[in-house]
Design goal:
Chain A is globular and about 55 Å long. Chain A is mostly helical. Chain A has 2 domains: 77 residues, Rna Polymerase Sigma Factor, Chain: A, CATH 1.10.1740; 82 residues, Winged helix-like DNA-binding domain superfamily/Winged helix DNA-binding domain (Arc Repressor Mutant, subunit A, Orthogonal Bundle), CATH 1.10.10.10. In chain A, helix 1 runs antiparallel to helix 2 and helix 4 runs antiparallel to helix 6. The longest helix of chain A is centred in the first third of the chain and has 25 residues. Chain A contains 9 helices and no strands. Chain B has a single domain, classed as Neuraminidase. In chain B, 19% of the residues lie in helices and 31% in strands. In chain B, strands 4-3-2-24 form a 4-stranded antiparallel beta sheet, with no helix packed on it. A 4-stranded antiparallel beta sheet of chain B has the order 5-6-7-8, with no helix packed on it. Chain B has a 4-stranded antiparallel beta sheet with strand order 9-10-11-12, with no helix packed on it. Chain B is elongated, with a radius of gyration of 32 Å. In chain B, 38% of the residues are buried. Classes of the chains: A mainly alpha, B alpha+beta. At the A-B interface, helix 1, helix 2, helix 5, helix 6 and helix 9 of A face helix 1 and helix 2 of B.
Chain lengths: 171, 423
């Protein structure tokens, strides 16, 4: 029989896991890695659940983001940097566009990737992003700037901020 | 626009995963594993710290073997170079009668100083003597009483008109430390600028001969006075003879050698003696050894040491034939026909304390490696015993750094363990 805390945990997982998986997917670029990251994060927060159950979301997202950046640190031996990403086959323009964005994200260093995802997808402020990643606000600013510069290089149409550019990019 | 692109990409994220109940159970299991690992690592660290502390404590502890009730005192077969990190009598307690003291450097957490190590006559234990107000620069002149019960030494302290930056500090008197009770009797004579040019010599176990002058400037003392301090009454009585080159019998008489040699009693009476120039002395030896009946002396006569020992009567000019062998000095008479002397070891640079038979010059080693030792001369006829070597504690920084390293490694192991347990 499960403890009362466990029921609250179950409810949180059921309701919030899809959102966590979306963030994790942006952070990792792979479905399997996203599932693994979210699963690890959820297991990791269980010992602390008694203390965070009233408002678990900020802590869980903090663990998720830090796990994503720390994982890269411990698993970098498995990754190989390449000058050009291999061509991918895509049946449609939408998928091609998604692959372009994903590959561009994957070319960012993990911390820059995390800053971009937290700032532009999770809509966190610079202060919240800094607290989530455990870094200084100044670092968030510089990492954001560097990441955007890099993304504009990798996705040239991103430089144009009007919707038509986006539309053309999306095909 | 970037937000829109990210939202579009996020739609490709997976949506399923393990059942929440399964995640909860795995999370609980990870928590248990983390706790167990934490406890195990902490336990190992504690055991290591306790082992480190125990080893350190055992190293610093003075082993006090049971005293032999029959004779009580022994002469060790060899002396050992004392560790500079030996404990002091402030922590180890009074040592009991000493067979010898050894000049040695003493080190601690933040530096070192000169020190005086006592060697127990009963147990063979070693410890630094914590002598209150001792002038450490003059510890080399500290003198063990003939029976090993007291140590006389010069004290430092404030005077009315101190000489600035005086090398070795300002001497303001002398003191006698009781090796059995730890009590100290201090004598602080009247002085304006401090005392200097001093000599300490024990007449017997309770009469201490003291000579000192008054400091005038950095390098000179004048008005040298000699006196005898009676330990049993605490009284001092002035004497007319200089004690500068005095040697003691240990039983109430000293002989002052020089141009006008005299034999001096504790009541101040003097008897002239015929003593040629001696070769000097080193640590642990005397200028000459006077028999308890004050009839004969043994010494290395002539210029310098090492040299050959001769025996002569104090009241005539004849010097007997020198005994064979070279010696560094004489210490005392052991009996009517044996003299304790110091001899360089032929196999090393060490100095041995030997018994010399004055009838034929034959020798027997009493204690090896007696470098820098000064003896309780009345105990030199004690049985020779192979006493245990003293502990040799190392720097206190070593266990401290070891403990810090253990804690650091334990902390690192905890972090690694907790990360692994989550994976």
């Amino acid at each position: 029989m499960q403890e009362p805390d466990g029921h609250l945990f179950d409810a949180f997982v059921i309701t919030r896991r899809p959102a966590l998986l979306r963030t994790a997917y942006l952070l990792t670029g792979h479905a399997e890695d996203a599932e693994d990251l979210v699963q690890t994060t959820l297991i990791k927060v269980v010992p602390k659940w008694g203390r965070i159950q009233d408002n678990p979301e900020p802590y869980v997202r903090k663990v998720l983001a830090r796990e994503a950046t720390n994982r890269w640190r411990t698993r970098r031996w498995r990754e190989t940097l390449v000058e050009h990403l291999p061509d991918r086959e895509g049946p449609g323009a939408s998928l091609t566009w998604s692959l372009t964005v994903r590959d561009a994200l994957l070319q960012l260093p993990p911390r820059q990737r995390a800053v971009i995802v937290l700032r532009y997808y999770d809509d966190l402020t610079e202060r919240e992003t800094a607290a989530t990643l455990g870094i200084a606000i100044g670092t968030v600013k510089s990492q954001t700037s560097d990441a955007l510069t890099r993304l504009r290089t990798l996705i040239p149409d991103l430089s144009a901020s009007d919707d038509s550019s986006v539309a053309s990019l999306r095909g | 626009m970037l937000t829109n692109l990210l939202e579009e990409l996020a739609r490709e994220a997976p949506s399923d995963g393990d059942a929440p109940e399964l995640l909860w159970r795995r999370g609980r299991r990870v928590a248990r594993t983390q706790r167990l690992g934490t406890i195990a690592i902490a336990a190992v660290a504690c055991v290591l710290l306790i082992a480190l502390g125990t080893a350190t404590w055992q190293q610093r502890a003075v082993d006090l073997p049971a005293t032999d009730a029959e004779t009580g005192t022994y002469l060790p077969t060899r002396f050992h170079p004392p560790s500079p990190y030996l404990p002091g009598t402030d922590s180890a307690g009074p040592m009991g009668r000493l067979v010898a003291t050894i000049d040695a450097s003493r080190l601690g957490w933040l530096g070192g100083t000169e020190g005086l190590v006592g060697v127990s006559a009963e147990t063979g234990a070693y410890a630094f003597l914590d002598l209150p107000d001792a002038a450490t620069a003059y510890l080399g002149e500290a003198l063990l009483s003939p029976d090993g019960r007291h140590v006389a030494y010069w004290t430092t302290g404030e005077v009315a008109d101190p000489i600035p930056a005086l090398e070795g500090g300002t001497l303001n008197g002398y003191a006698v430390y009781d090796t059995v009770t730890g009590e100290v009797v201090t004598q602080t004579p009247r002085t304006e600028r401090g005392i200097g040019g001093g000599t300490l010599v024990w007449f017997d176990p309770i009469h201490l001969g003291v000579e000192f002058g008054q400091m005038r400037d950095c390098c000179m003392s004048t008005d040298a006075r000699s006196m005898i301090f009676d330990l049993s009454t605490g009284q001092t009585s002035a004497i007319s003879s200089s004690l500068n080159t005095a040697s003691t019998t240990g039983v109430g008489t000293v002989i002052v050698s020089g141009e006008e040699s005299v034999i001096l009693e504790t009541d101040g009476t003097t008897v002239p003696a015929q003593i040629p120039m001696t070769g000097g002395r080193i640590n642990g030896s005397q200028f000459l050894a006077l028999t308890p009946d004050s009839k004969r002396v043994a010494a290395i006569f002539g210029n310098g040491i090492p040299g050959r020992i001769s025996v002569k009567n104090v009241d005539d000019d004849d010097v007997g034939d020198p005994l064979p062998g070279n010696y560094l000095g004489v210490t005392s008479w052991l009996d009517e026909s044996h003299v304790a002397a110091l001899r360089g070891n032929s196999d090393s640079t060490d100095i041995d304390l030997v018994s010399v038979d004055i009838s034929d010059g034959s020798t027997e080693v009493l204690s090896a490696n007696a470098n820098n030792a000064r003896f309780a001369i009345n105990l030199l006829d004690s049985p020779v015993k192979n006493q245990p070597a003293p502990p040799h504690p190392r720097s206190p920084w070593i266990p401290t750094i070891g403990a810090a390293a253990t804690i650091a490694v334990a902390a690192w192991a905890l972090i690694v363990w907790r990360r692994r347990a989550r994976a």
